[in-house]
Amino acid sequence: MRILSITLALIFAVGLVSAQNEIVSMSEKAFDYKDWVYKNVDTGKDVNLRKFVNGKKLVIVVYWAPWCHNWEYDVEYVQSLYEKYKGSGLDIIGVAEYDPVDKMKDHIKKHSVTFTNVYESTSTVEREKTTHFMQRREAGDTRKWGSPWYVFLDPKTFESEGQAIISKKTSVVNGELKRDEVEKYIRQRLGLDGTTAGTAAAKKEIEVCEPNKSAGLLKP
Q: Which residues does 25 contact at the CB level (< 8 Å), separation at least 6?
């Protein structure tokens, strides 16, 4: 009886951990991704996206929340991509959401993040008022919090200078990265090889990333 109880408990724990996993394939989406100006988390200075991407071959915009354990799963890998490919034309910029700036700074320091980070919102009550919320819904992301959410920008495809819209079609990841797939995509866009990217998987709204929810469960 005791062995059965232990077995059931282990099955439940594994299922709970798996349920937190939101690894999703990349997909190309037709929607108007808009230019923005947000404050740098570290310096407080304005950062304009269109100016930021100038001279880059590929820019990844990743939206994240400090309390989100799905982003915790990706953050060090994203940092490793930045370190590996920044000399080849890749840049990454994070857009922090839904937590005070000091929490954002603590998170950046904890994970030794060196790519640029800005912030749009500083409270969970702002969720449905953010551009992040509106843009990711246009891109088919039906999750509640949308952390992490990735937008891949190729400056060669940008709309004309001076327009509010940067791109009308771009690749996104509505969840955590499929690591081999994403790295192949990056290498292709940087001219390092000719590998193609994959397709998307549909997602229903779930409440995996919740503020103040324990992040103690391990990823498979």
A: 173, 178, 181, 198, 199, 200, 201
Cβ atoms of 111 and 94 within 8 Å: the answer is no
Spell 84-94 as b/e; 16+ CB within 10 A means b: ebeeebbbbbb
Q: What is the mean pLDDT of residues 160-178?
A: 91
Nearest C-alpha neighbor of 140 from the set 203, 94, 199, 197: 203
Domain that holds residue 112: 22-189
CATH of the domain at 121: 3.40.30.10
Q: Say which DSSP state 100 is in.
A: -
Number of domains, the chain: 1
> What pLDDT score was predicted for residue 120?
98
Per-residue pLDDT reduced to its tens digit, 40-66: 999 999 999 999 999 999 999 999 999
Task: State residue 8 phi and psi, 5-degree precision.
Answer: -65, -40
**Domain for residue 62, yes or no?**
yes
Within-domain flag for 43: yes
Residue 42 lies in a domain: yes
Q: Is the pTM of this model over 0.85?
A: no
Domain assignment present for 5 = no
